[in-house]
Amino acid sequence: MSKFGAHMGTTELITELTYLTGFGNQHSSEAVAGALPIGRNSPQRAPHGLYAELLSGSAFTAPRAANQRTWLYRRRPSVVVGGYAPLAHAGWKTGAAQGEHAPPDPLRWGPWLAATEGDFVDGLRSYAVNGEPGLGGMAALAYAATRDMGRRALVNADAEMLIVPQQGRLRLTTELGRLDVAPGMIALVPRGLAFKVDLLDGSARGYVCENHGAAFRLPELGPIGSNGLANPRDFEAPVAWFDGAAGEYEVVKRYGGRLWRATQGHSPFNVVAWHGNLAPYRWDTARFMAINTVSFDHPDPSIFTVLTSPSDTPGWANVDFVIFPPRWMVAEDTFRPPWYHRNVMSEFMGLVLGQYDAKPEGFKPGGASLHNSYVPHGPDSEAFDKASGAHLQPHKLDHTLAFMFETRWPLLPTAWALSDAPLETSYADCWQGLKDDFNA
Ligand SMILES: O=C(O)Cc1cc(O)ccc1O
Ligand SMILES: [Fe+2]
């Protein structure tokens, strides 16, 4: 039984894997007793004949609160890999240079079904991109997989990867150990860490945010105080685990907005012990302590921020990860769904489960929408009529999970998103029924 008890509801999990808890903690883990050096990081000879290797997520001189690094004690250092050659890919795009012109229309896609068999890497498709790998920005992607990655690893040197499963449980094997991730949970893989995705249910589908900017962190809580929203202790990191099986491995590397591949004669998942505060995590959205009005009005969606990647301008996120979880609606004399709005920030949304209150029928689980910078949007006519006529009682929005990647830079849809993906041709029609009801 996992640490997430059955009482949490959305994600009855999975296996007996064990985890270390606490976002950003200084974790320590060893798969073999004595593999972790005590009192120093680089002894003349590391224990058990292992190699010491440092993985940093921040400049050495970053302020202590933002400093991230982990020491790995492994059977061979990751420099032992063959030469890289370019690898073609059907639809993984990153950076504004790989996007198309963004039309000033709202865009929405139905659930995507991959036409071909493939693993997690094969099944990545970018909906929308901005920024530039190495400098900042993000990409919003879909994934669909019908095969394990098996003896294939991915190293994304361009971006941290936030994975949002929508169908099918995943087993992530990372250099630091294994994580089981079900729909309703998310996984966060640090930039530059090797990992692979195997399928616990035979197939899987979901979303990915590639974050080219500052690493995701928990948002400040301000007047909320010292508890609430996503709580640090609910983030689970893996314990050290290594792959003993000999044989060839393919390493796929995202580097400079391009994909590369190399082969090596051993598994990259050969880390016997590690310690540090740069680690992959899983987190169950059912653990989100939602805060909202208990009087009136609809608060800004920033109240639902799980993780934020700040930019260099205070308050203007490179990307925020925001969820719309099950919650009670109690506002009095209030139009409860989102208001109509035009925002400077750009909003990419996905739906894991159920219905989203602003678009009860039109937005499908597995679908996606893009309301770009200054593109007007809000509840469709159906949602408006329902909410403005509703008898306002406490009401539970249940069996629902929508999310948003919100970024300060406009998102450019990709060629795939505009042509091959299930783009709706008349999305904007969902607002045409909003009549002029003015009566003077
Ligand atoms: O557009 C959306 O559906 C996302 C959203 C939700 C909300 O409650 C307020 C603003 C906002 O952009
Ligand atoms: Fe919005």
Automatic annotation (TrEMBL):
Gene3D superfamilies: Jelly Rolls. Its cofactor is Fe cation. Residues 287-438 form the Homogentisate 1,2-dioxygenase C-terminal domain. One of its GO terms (molecular function) is homogentisate 1,2-dioxygenase activity. Its EC number is 1.13.11.5. CDD domains: cupin_HGO_N. SUPFAM superfamilies: RmlC-like cupins. Residues 18-284 form the Homogentisate 1,2-dioxygenase N-terminal domain. Belongs to the homogentisate dioxygenase family. PANTHER family: HOMOGENTISATE 1,2-DIOXYGENASE (PTHR11056:SF0). This is Homogentisate 1,2-dioxygenase. It comes from Pelomonas nitida.
